Amino acid sequence: LIPVQTSTQDKYNIHTGLQLMPELEKFVEQFPSRSAIVMVDAFVLEHHRHYFEPALSSHFKRLHVFEVPRGEKAKSFEVYKQAVDFVLEKGVERSTPLIAIGGGVTGDLSGFVAATVLRGLPLIHVPTTLLAMVDSSIGGKTGINHQVGKNLVGSFYQPRAVFADGTFLSTLSRKEWVNGLSEVLKYGMIRHPEMLDDIALLLESNRFTEAEAWLPLIRKSAQTKTDIVAEDVLESGKRAFLNFGHTYAHVIEREGGYQRYSHGEAVFAGMIAAVEASNALGASINPTNLLKFKPLYELSLDEITSSPAELTEIMRKDKKVKDNQIRLILLEKMGTPYIHEVNDTELVEQSWQNMLNVF
Ligand code: NAD
Ligand code: ZN
User: In angstroms, what is the span from residue 129 Cα to ligand 1's centroid?
Assistant: First the structure.
């Protein structure tokens, strides 16, 4: 027997807070490289360059800045190639760090570039959306989309550090706050129900788009995702809990042509359906726990014209479905998830119907 120590669990820290650039400045001093690659979301580059650039240029003689176009379309083979060309033509070495500054799109694309160029460059994530801070920058999934589906080409690649600096959130639109909110609600539903009360308080105090007010929830969310991923590094079991609401959400996003509904909206609706299905199987979760956040979403599913039976059939055809079984993440009670492989299409159809009645 040859024991192999996998490196998928390399230790690193997630820094959270406001005004973290001095910490980042100190962190990059460990890299001997005289240059660094910075892949930045176009909006962030325009609005926050003055904020992050001095912290990096004080240590690196040269910063090679690649502007990542805004939007999901940047997770394409075309932009991936442009980025790889850019990085290689600048003459990088294995020790040249790549710093990704932006939302989940920038993080996923840049992470994949870092994972693949020279078989791996040191990667630092600087997430700048709520969603990226609480979700996409954690867990090591990187990648791009393929015409067959989203996130189908990629790799697991861990960063050296994550700097979730709330200072960037000052420019985040309300729509993007709501988008990230769904993942935070998800962590509350699957592990820490008290988080839902904390979010409700934040809303009551009219501080919904204030980074400072969000910091405790950002920390708790990042910790929760870290814990669940650590319990299951290569997604064989528990990591699936993070898909709570997402089995339904993927169908809604698809039915809306990936344009009509944001991921966060779809996940919110999906979580309502998952609560309905959980209750049908004996849980007694009060849907109001989630429904009290509904006004934030202004969501109508009128454009979903398929019937619950058709929606259920689409779920069954999902690429991740094994042996024709729909795999749902349901709750025994608030904070206690389980994986349920469904044969009973009636249960799923009814949960779709109940959800559609709400929206
Ligand atoms: P995004 O990166 O497209 O960012 C959303 C919008 O916010 C963009 O228009 C961007 O320009 C803008 N933006 C970014 N930072 C800003 C700031 N500080 N102020 C104002 N605007 C800002 O999308 P996202 O929601 O951050 O991430 C979604 C992506 O993440 C999807 O591609 C999804 O597949 C991926 N994702 C990955 C994982 C993972 O584990 N790797 C997990 C969840 C989601
Ligand atoms: Zn999600």
Answer: 6
Whether the per-residue pLDDT at 325 is higher than 90: the answer is no
Contact 164, 137 (CB under 8 A): yes
Instruction: State the Cα–Cα distance between residues 326 and 340, nearest whole angstrom.
Output: 8
CA of 283 to the centre of ligand 2 (A): 24
**Alpha-carbon span 303 to 152, nearest angstrom:** 27
Q: How far apart are CA 171 and CA 145, in angstroms?
A: 27
Question: From residue 77, how far is each of 7, 167, 186, 312 by CA, in Å?
Answer: 27, 31, 31, 32
171 lines ligand 1 (CB under 6 A): yes
CA distance 154 to 124: 17
Q: In this structure, what are the phi and psi dihedrals at residue 15, rounded to the nearest 5 degrees? A: -90, 135
Long-range contacts: 205-212, Cβ < 8 Å, 24+?
208/174, 208/177, 208/296, 209/169, 209/172, 209/174, 209/177, 211/18, 211/166, 211/167, 211/169, 211/170, 212/18, 212/166
* Nearest in space to 229 (alpha carbons), one of 134, 315, 321: 134
Contact criterion met (CB below 8 Å) for 182 and 58: no
| Domains, the chain | 13-171 (3.40.50.1970), 174-358 (1.20.1090.10)
Known catalytic residue at 75: no
List 239, 276, 340, 354, catalytic entry? 239
What radius of gyration do the chain's Cα atoms show? Answer: 21
Whether ipTM exceeds 0.90: yes
- State the closest ligand 1 atom to the C-alpha of 183, by its place in the atom list counted from 1: 43
Cα of 179 from ligand 1 centre, angstroms: 9
- What's the CA-to-centroid distance between 72 and ligand 1, angstroms? 8
Candidate from 44, 52, 133, 136 with most ligand 1 atoms within 8 A of CB, to mutate = 136
At 154, the amino acid letter reads: G
Q: What is the pLDDT of residues 254-296, one digit of tens each?
A: 999 888 999 999 999 999 999 999 999 999 999 999 999 999 9
Question: Is 165 touching ligand 1 by the criterion CB < 6 Å?
Answer: no
* Catalytic status, residue 243: yes
